[in-house]
Structure formats: structure tokens, C-alpha cells
Specification:
The structure is a single chain. With about 500 residues, this protein is of the alpha+beta class. It has one domain (about 5-505): Alkaline phosphatase D (PhoD) (Purple Acid Phosphatase, chain A, domain 2). The protein has seven helices and 31 strands. The protein has helices at about 5-15, 145-155, 200-215, 250-265, 320-335, 380-395, 440; strands at about 25-30, 35-45, 50-55, 60, 65, 70-75, 85-90, 95-105, 115-120, 130, 160-165, 180, 225-230, 240, 245, 280, 285, 290-295, 300-305, 340-345, 350, 360, 370, 400-405, 410-415, 420-425, 445-450, 455-460, 465-470, 475-485, 500-505. It is globular.
Length: about 500
């Protein structure tokens, strides 16, 4: 085994680059807890025999995730908390497939920790071959510039990364809008076939390799990542009209979403405070509900608001009752100093979309409101929203939601949520292009939802960007970064925070 690269060296050598076809590894995305690492990897050429992930005197044989041997999952347990490990992937003969690198496990849940830095962003997907219909303009920020945004974000050395939804933009039936998809050389999806082991597998890979494997490469191989799925990750936009309703996902949407996670990014590892019987959970691994626990300092609760959405009128929900109970219980009983809600669907603001917590719709006067009913919107969604926000207001020392989906950066505090203001942060989108901003696609910028009294520290800003969150025992500090197509690309490499704020526990 050769000398291991440090985390900083590993990030510096890979963060801005495409995967190197001269190296066999195409992409690496690992997650971690205090005692376990789960890693998804793909290779440029299929492997006929399982590779191995090695760390010190421990190793785990890869489990093939696809039908041909391009994709492999590694799961390494019995690790020490807060410990740097030299990781290496070798083939069946022991030959190294990627240079060794250093990766640190998370602190033990009972460890007293003085600081935790978290990187959060949303909406990083988008295929470079997509165009705005009728023009040659790209619909998304080009992948090369997204990688530069990642490189700049990682230069601030976060301890963990949360990618909150919309890793894939390849809507099949709903929400295509002005997006012109490139022809799939493997043909159209066949909804009556499985995904793995049929032509659908190559069809999925044509769309997803460029948006995930080639976008990330080995960029984040040295930092634990937590990938949450949102509507486009089910290969549709959330939409309802007289031609159809896109959610809850049908069987084929669900198979595509599950296959995307199976191949490209890791499931959420078990956590003692999260019930093992939650939906989409098997053997402690969850596809939809995650916990990022960083010692006794922070507990971040991640939840997918799309997979289990229901259409039951006043009793409808975005997440199952069992998941809601878990969230409320952790808000009330977690020993962590800070407990944060991180749903895939935004809190406090609306853009008039169907699948929001809120009934707001763009009206004829150009404003959002509820004078006209939103087609097929469910009042139970708002009721569940109110219960979650009330629980955070009542039980959290710093009530806080950090959300995805909405293409903006923002910070505000809901004043009428309960006994204490509830802060909401929009973390910023990575890939949003000129026609995907709410003001263009929806005809309105994000605005405060009807019925909420929101004190806006930063009104929704339609720019690309990301947010760094520093958790300390007595406060949470935020740094927000922004850039947009049309500005000099070189600005990305020296991007500095344009907005900072600090939250302190209520008195």
C-alpha cells in the first residue's frame, strides 16, 4: 500500500476535474457514521470479480449494484469514531484501483464536540446536452462550472456535505417545459420492464452518468455525503392538472429513483434514535429518512417529502405519520445541542408550485395568493407543516429548517409558528440555469407563503450558490455564497460569502 493522500491533498487533486479515463474509478461517493462507512463507486470498465475497500486491517468486499459490474457498493463496519482511516480500493488481485486517501469517521454520539462545519446545497443535476427549446442555450449551469463551485465550497473544509435533492433532471411525462432532452441512443424507457438487467438500465445510465458520476467524479471521496431525493429524482416534476397528477410516484418512478440511489449515492446509515421500521428502511439502511449525528453537538434530520406523499384531503401528508413522530420525538428528546430539520421541500416560501406545503397560486394580478384554489392541492399538507413547525418552535433551542428544491438563497424567521420564531434557510442551487429560476419558470420569484408572518433577513435571491453552517455549542453561524451565469467564471474560484448571520439559543 502506498502513502495515503491527506484529505486536503485528495480534494485539491480531484475537486475541479472530470474523472480521468486513465484511472479505472469513475466516481466515489461515501457516507459515514461514527463506526461505519458506506461507499458507492463506479468504474470505466466492468469488473468481473468483486473489488475490496480496505481501511487499516479491515476490509469489505464490494457488492455489485448493476448487471454488468460497473457499479459497486462497499460497507465497512466496526470502525473507531473520529478516526482518520487510509482508504484504498483494490481489485481481486490486490492491485490498487485508486490512490489511497484519508477519510475520517464521525464523532461518537456521546462525544463532546466544539465545532461542526456542514456544506449544504440543492439542485445540482442537469445534463449538459439539454437545451432550451428552439435555441442553442444550455438549460443548466455547465457541469464544468458546477465542479468549480464544488471545489470552492470544499476549499472551506466542511466536515460533511448534504446534497438536498434534484440530482437528476430528466422528466419523462410531467414538467418538461422548455427543456429539450437529447435523444437517448438506447431508446425510450419501457415502463413495464425492470430497470436493472434490461435496456432500461442503459437508458438510465445515459441520463444519470453525466449528472452524477461524471459530475462528482472523486470530488467528494474524502468527505461524508448525505444525498436526499426530491421530485426530479423520481424522474418527474411535482405537478397536478386535468391531464394527470405526478405524485405519489407510480411503480416505475419509484423503481427509477431506487435504482438511481442504488447505483450512485449511499443510503442513510442506521442511527439509534431513528426507528428501524420507518418506510423505505431495510437492515437499518434508509433510502428516504436520514440522520447526520455529529457527537452531542448536532443532529440533522433529513426527510424526503415526495416518496410517501398522500392525497387524502385534510388527512394528507408529505411524510408518513411514523416519520413525523420520529422527527417530533427527536426535537423533544435528542441529547444533541442543536437539532435541525432538513426536508426536501421548502419552508416559509412559495413559488406557486403544486407540491408545496402551501396553497398559494400565481393569480391574474401577478401575485401569489389563495383567492383561486390550487388544483388538487391537499390541506393536510399544510396541517402537517404546522405540526412540524410548532414542534420545532416548542422544543428546539434554535428552531431551524434548511430546505431544498426552491431555486434561491434566503433566510427568514417565521414569527407566528409557535412560542418562538422558527428560522428557515434556503441553501442555494448549484445548477439552475436562466430559464429555471422561479421568476422565469413560474412567473414569480419565491415569496412568503400566505398566512405566515416571516421576518426576512435575506429575501429569496435567485442565484446559484451554497451555504456553510458552523455549529458551535452556543450558536450556529451561517455563510452564504452566490454566483450566476453571466458573471465572470473566474469569480467562482475566489468566491467569498456575500451574507453572514448567527443564530443563538432562545432565552
Amino acid at each position: 500500500m502506498g502513502s495515503a493522500m491527506t484529505r486536503r491533498q485528495f480534494l485539491a487533486s480531484t475537486a475541479a476535474a472530470l474523472p480521468d479515463p486513465q484511472q479505472p474509478v469513475r466516481h466515489l461517493l461515501p457516507t459515514a457514521s461514527h463506526n461505519r462507512i458506506r461507499l458507492k463507486a463506479s468504474f470505466f470498465e466492468p469488473l468481473s470479480k468483486p473489488p475490496r475497500l480496505r481501511a487499516a486491517d479491515l476490509s469489505a468486499e464490494g457488492v455489485r449494484s448493476d448487471s454488468a459490474g460497473f457499479f459497486w457498493t462497499f460497507d465497512l463496519a466496526s470502525l473507531k469514531p473520529s478516526n482518520p482511516y487510509t482508504l484504498e480500493i483494490t481489485d481481486a488481485t490486490g492491485k490498487s484501483l485508486v490512490p489511497p486517501w484519508t477519510f475520517r469517521t464521525l464523532p461518537h454520539p456521546d462525544e463532546m464536540v466544539s465545532r461542526f462545519r456542514l456544506l449544504v446545497y440543492t439542485c445540482a443535476g442537469g445534463h449538459d446536452a439539454c437545451r432550451i427549446s428552439g435555441t442553442v442555450l444550455p438549460y443548466w449551469v455547465p457541469a464544468a462550472l458546477r465542479r468549480r463551485l464544488f471545489a470552492r465550497a470544499l476549499s472551506y473544509k466542511p466536515d460533511a456535505v448534504i446534497a438536498n435533492g434534484d440530482h437528476i433532471y430528466w422528466d419523462l411525462r410531467f414538467g418538461r417545459g422548455q427543456i429539450e432532452l437529447p435523444p437517448n441512443p438506447h431508446g425510450d424507457f419501457q415502463r413495464d420492464l425492470p430497470v436493472i438487467g434490461t435496456p432500461n438500465e442503459l437508458r438510465l445510465r445515459f441520463a444519470a452518468d453525466a449528472q452524477i458520476a461524471d459530475l462528482y467524479g472523486t470530488t467528494m471521496g474524502a468527505v461524508p455525503v448525505f444525498f436526499l431525493q426530491d421530485d426530479h429524482d423520481y424522474w418527474e416534476n411535482d405537478e397536478a392538472h386535468d391531464r394527470g397528477v405526478s405524485f405519489p410516484p407510480d411503480d416505475f418512478m419509484l423503481r427509477l429513483a431506487r435504482t438511481t440511489r442504488r447505483l450512485y449515492f449511499p443510503e442513510f446509515l442506521p442511527d439509534p434514535g431513528r426507528p428501524s421500521g420507518l418506510p423505505s428502511t431495510a437492515n437499518g439502511l434508509s433510502e428516504s429518512f436520514g440522520t447526520l449525528r455529529f457527537g452531542r453537538l448536532a443532529e440533522v434530520l433529513l426527510y424526503d417529502c415526495r416518496r410517501f406523499l398522500t392525497l387524502k384531503g385534510p388527512f394528507a401528508t408529505f411524510i408518513p405519520e411514523t416519520a413525523e413522530d420520529w422527527i417530533v420525538r427527536r426535537l423533544r428528546t435528542s441529547p444533541a445541542r442543536h437539532v435541525v430539520n432538513l426536508p426536501s421541500t421548502p419552508i416559509a416560501w412559495s413559488a406557486g408550485k403544486w407540491g408545496e406545503w402551501y396553497p398559494d397560486l400565481l393569480l391574474e394580478n401577478g401575485r401569489l395568493g389563495t383567492a383561486k384554489p390550487k388544483y388538487y392541492w391537499q390541506p393536510g399538507w399544510r396541517a402537517q407543516h404546522d405540526r412540524l413547525v410548532q414542534a420545532a418552535s416548542t422544543h428546539s433551542p434554535i428552531p431551524l429548517f434548511i430546505s431544498g428544491d426552491l431555486h434561491a438563497l434566503a433566510h427568514g424567521a417565521i414569527q407566528n409558528a409557535g412560542p418562538h420564531p422558527v428560522h428557515s434557510v434556503l441553501s442555494g442551487p448549484i445548477s439552475t440555469g436562466p430559464k429555471a429560476w422561479p421568476s422565469s419558470a413560474r412567473g414569480t420569484p419565491p415569496l412568503t407563503a400566505t398566512g405566515l408572518d416571516v421576518a426576512e433577513d435575506l429575501k429569496p435571491l435567485e442565484m446559484n450558490g451554497f451555504t456553510l453552517v458552523d455549529f458551535l455549542p452556543d450558536r450556529i453561524e451561517f455563510q452564504m455564497f452566490a454566483w450566476k451565469l453571466g458573471r465572470p467564471e473566474a469569480e467562482i474560484d475566489t468566491l467569498a460569502p456575500f451574507h453572514r448571520f448567527t443564530l443563538e439559543p432562545r432565552m
